[in-house]
Amino acid sequence: MERVFQALASTPRRKILAYLAHAELSAGDIAARFEMSKPAVSQHLSVLENAGLIKSEKRGQFVFYRLLPDALTNVLNGYVQEVCPVSRPLKAESRAIADKQRQSGD
């Protein structure tokens, strides 16, 4: 979760995520939208990929990136549940159910 929040702390990385919200783009297409060097954009893409927010796919000589919306949603949902007082007892109940299921499955 920490890597996700570190990735989201950067304005250029949040902009990259916005560009990828509805379209798959090549690294060159993404770099063309920023006034920074291609290696700098590549570093931002690497941070986002290492955080599990985007996925890359090499096709020929190009690398294409796409958003992994479920990963971001799950991380943010987990964070909200950690800080939300209403969720704590529900998560404890969920943990108890899971433990019970594991014990009955053995």
From TrEMBL:
One of its GO terms (molecular function) is DNA binding. SUPFAM superfamilies: Winged helix' DNA-binding domain. The keyword Acyltransferase does not apply. Keywords: DNA-binding, Transcription, Transcription regulation. Transmembrane segments: none annotated. It comes from the Bacteria. Residues 1-87 form the HTH arsR-type domain. Gene3D superfamilies: Winged helix-like DNA-binding domain superfamily/Winged helix DNA-binding domain. CDD domains: HTH_ARSR (cd00090). Coiled coil: none annotated. The keyword Nucleotide-binding does not apply. This is Transcriptional regulator, ArsR family.
